[in-house]
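Example: Glycosyltransferase family 39 protein.
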Amino acid sequence: MSTVEALVPTHSMPLSASRAGRQLFLFGLAYLVLWTLCAALIPRAMHIDSIEQVVWSQSWQWGYYKHPPLPSALMRGVNLVFGGPSQALTAFAAQGCSVAAMVYVWLLARQMVQPRVAIVAVVLTSLLSYHTINALTLNHNTVSLPFTAAALYHFYRGVVSGKRTHWLALGLAAGLAMLTKYSAALALSALFVFVITQRLWADARVLRGIALSLAVFAVVLSPHVHWLVVNNFPPIHYAEHQLESSTNRFVVLLGFLINQASRVSVMALVAWLLLRLGPAHNASGGSKGMATDRERFDRHYLLVTLCTPLALAIAPALLRGDALDSNWVSAYFLPAGILLAHRFFRGNRDPLLLNRTWKLAALAHIGILMVFFAGAAVVPEIVGRNARFNFPSQLLADQAAAVWRVHESAPMRLVVSDTWTGGNLALHLRPEPLVFMDHDTGKSRWLDESDLSQCGALVITAVANRAAPAYAPLFSQASASGEFSLDWGFGKRGVVMHYAWATLSPVQDGQLCRFKPG
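Written out as structure tokens, the predicted fold is:
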């Protein structure tokens, strides 16, 4: 018998898995609807990362100047199905990634604990800020959640069951995770650490499975690698710039650790309350007696997959002082809820455990939602402070459309601007104009100079940038130009934004433009 085969349980888990699944389905549905509606209806604008995806998703590409392509490709497909980008659709896609990740958390937890305790694991995971306020933003961190969770699940199942389908799925999930964000390599490296620490390299079945996964991984990643080589690795250069050394590595690290503590604080508080409110004999939560080989194996897997990527992420900041953003480790906390449930609730017999879990989770989610939206959108709107979520996105789009209608008869097919400004226009205008980011073909590789003359364009930028090298030539050849202002907030807490605009008329009324309005 192999090392892994010895770990396969010989008894079946207690039932109620189907009922637990139904409860979690309703929870996931309520979670998705509640957060999506609030994100769609309360703020007037979206996070810059979500706006960035609005722009990048306008064209199918195998890579973008900052990141791999998968989040933008997925959003492109969603936009095509539902008729273009919108604030509600973007919020739905972002929260959908969080729900999909929790499905895999449930599947993994079901392999380690009873269904009722697996529910506790999923609910605790949902209270991480990466699955609530941070999951409102559709960016590469958010989209990496389901693929990283899938990789963790299929690796575990591949090791324990030895089934080829799980190794194939692991290769696919790992490849898609890397097509989402390169930092997925840190989470995937934890799997190799586990192979070493558990001496799984001595099991021929595991080695064959890993080889199969690596083959699938290479196939999935190969088109993007080809794109990187052809285009001189733009995301790698961008990442190098983002990781420039900080002046004080210990300040950076301390700030990062405090930030992470705040993001897991609600999950930890609810877990503590569940322990305190339960019967005294369940306080420890664990099974009586010594842990079995399988339980030690599971706990070791959760610890390695939780701690390894975090340690690897922190190491460059500690050793070299590299910059470290708290959002970059969003996918690394996926095992945390399962680990807490496995450690403290695995042997819990309290019949009220689930009831308390659902009540505390409901209170926590509603509290997080109210505090976040009050601080980010409602209060700034009331007091007049300019904040990202009360940016006058719709007014900006209306003003730009009015300018174009006055001076041009052809449809607006191109906008030349920064990503934030152009993305807000593309979010609201129909037909949706393509955004030529900063008049830079390195950023917008699907556009070129000939498109400006053949399609025409609205050029819009801050007045202070009008003389910048990227914009000055466009203003000099404009058929019309001018300025307008918008209030962002009001009173002493608000600002007035001054925009310069120019229209570039298309030749032959846009008949030569390769982008047709639709």
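The radius of gyration is 25 Å.
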